[in-house]
Inverse folding.
């Protein structure tokens, strides 16, 4: 399997040979499995140096700003493909033939409606509930509706669950929004495209149809596409970990949604807009930049920096172009928050602190701006990220389940008290 090895010298013990494996791209990995027999674990908080699995789906080179899905660069996919085609690519490893794509789009379209009983779930939430809180609940609740497809060892069941998830996510997302503003749910319209349908369910009302602009529909599709997968990020790893116990796909995706919600991950696009609103005026930018640089201040500039991209985020490049297109179409180039965003972007690209720490505007910086311009409330931003990331979560879950896998069970470096006896009543005085 491997002819390369690393030799680890251990004080007082015999050196151990650890096999090294090479992928098709990216760093080699050292198989540390043999350490356990020597009474040793590896220590890697935040998994910054740990490959948790083997995968064929997505490759990232953070240093060079490369993101490939099944080998195809993200900028080419954004230009020449669309979200559902990328979804197929992530699930199948190849682009679909024309008839395959048509049949797939048809299939997804036929599953966009949710069970009518689902409405009752929504009624149980407070109107001011965060839509991500609602999504965690209702996506997990899908498992209560589809008993027929919960056998994860059955390939057909996995396939139908995957299609149901991808089809129903926008419907559930739009329902979460409508519920929060007290408007009736809008049913999907099957003659509309995926992103178009989402905007229709978000903004139509029974008394007025919403005419979806092709530029905005395309921008929304691109936002979904750019978020479709990002290899072993926190939410995808969560989905894999939850799935490794044999749990059902709806529950696993709900776990992924929870992980995505945090401001260090998917919640950043919402946090960007909150931050821009807090800054409030271009004249206060320097004050916030100083806070971001201050080691004693926990404040960070949201939408800047990335765990893996230390040069530039290739998705941010595409998103920036889309932002210009959308703002142009909507005539919003003079919006005060956008002026703050533009100035911050400029500072990050020129300021020594940001350059030295390789903190560039990330995908969420620009997606937040586009979504705001489209009239989407900030609380929905992370929900939209979740809709976009669903194909990636499913692809990774399916890849794991279709191959031999182990339950995920990390180890620890224990630093608590050593064993001691429970005090007797006399000791307690
Ligand atoms: N503003 C100011 N300083 C920062 C920022 C920031 N946004 N991000 C990192 N730093 C500093 C940090 O203080 C540290 O400084 P020092 O070396 O002096 O201690 C250094 O840069 C490295 O930071 P880190 O936390 O060790 O870096 P990381 O790779 O673990 O964190 C990150 C990556 C994305 C969590 C972080 O950059 C961050 O919190 N960014 C803001 C939140 C954000 O925009 N998240 C969305 C990421 S893109 C969407 C996604 O894929 O989920």
């Amino acid at each position: 399997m491997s002819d390369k090895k690393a030799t680890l010298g251990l004080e007082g013990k015999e050196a151990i040979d650890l096999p090294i494996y090479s992928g098709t791209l990216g760093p080699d990995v050292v198989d540390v499995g043999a350490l356990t027999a020597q009474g040793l674990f590896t220590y890697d908080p935040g998994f910054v140096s740990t490959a948790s699995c083997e995968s064929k789906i997505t490759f990232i080179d953070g240093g060079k700003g490369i993101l490939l899905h099944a080998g195809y660069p993200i900028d080419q996919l954004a230009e020449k493909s669309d979200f559902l085609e990328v979804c197929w690519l992530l699930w199948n490893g190849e682009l679909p033939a024309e008839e395959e794509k048509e049949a797939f789009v048809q299939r997804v379209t036929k599953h966009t409606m949710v069970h009518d009983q689902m409405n009752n779930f929504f009624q149980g939430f407070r109107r001011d509930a965060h839509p991500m809180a609602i999504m965690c609940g209702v996506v997990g609740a899908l498992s209560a509706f589809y008993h027929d497809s919960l056998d994860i060892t059955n390939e057909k069941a996995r396939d139908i669950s995957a299609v149901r998830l991808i089809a129903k996510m926008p419907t559930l997302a739009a329902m979460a929004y409508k519920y929060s503003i007290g408007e009736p749910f809008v049913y999907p319209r099957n003659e509309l495209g995926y992103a178009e349908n989402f905007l229709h369910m978000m903004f139509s009302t029974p008394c007025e149809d919403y005419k979806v602009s092709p530029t905005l529909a395309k921008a929304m599709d691109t936002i979904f596409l750019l978020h479709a997968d990002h290899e072993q990020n926190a939410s995808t790893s969560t989905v894999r970990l939850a799935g490794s116990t044999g749990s059902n796909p709806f529950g696993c995706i709900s776990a992924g949604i929870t992980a995505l919600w945090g401001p260090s991950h998917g919640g950043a696009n919402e946090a960007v807009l909150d931050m821009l609103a807090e800054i409030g005026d271009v004249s206060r930018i320097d004050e916030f930049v100083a806070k971001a640089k201050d080691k004693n201040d926990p404040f960070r500039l949201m939408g800047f920096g990335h765990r893996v991209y230390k040069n530039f985020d290739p998705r941010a490049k595409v998103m920036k172009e889309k932002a210009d297109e959308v703002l142009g179409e909507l005539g919003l180039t003079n919006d005060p928050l956008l002026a703050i965003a533009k100035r911050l972007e400029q500072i990050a690209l020129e300021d020594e602190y940001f350059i030295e720490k390789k903190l560039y505007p990330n995908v969420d910086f620009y997606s937040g701006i586009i979504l705001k311009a489209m009239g989407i409330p900030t609380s929905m931003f992370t929900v939209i990220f979740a809709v976009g990331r669903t194909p990636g979560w499913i692809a990774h879950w399916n890849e794991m389940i279709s191959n031999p896998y182990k339950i995920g069970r990390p180890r620890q470096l224990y630093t608590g008290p050593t064993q001691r006896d429970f005090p007797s009543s006399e000791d307690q005085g």
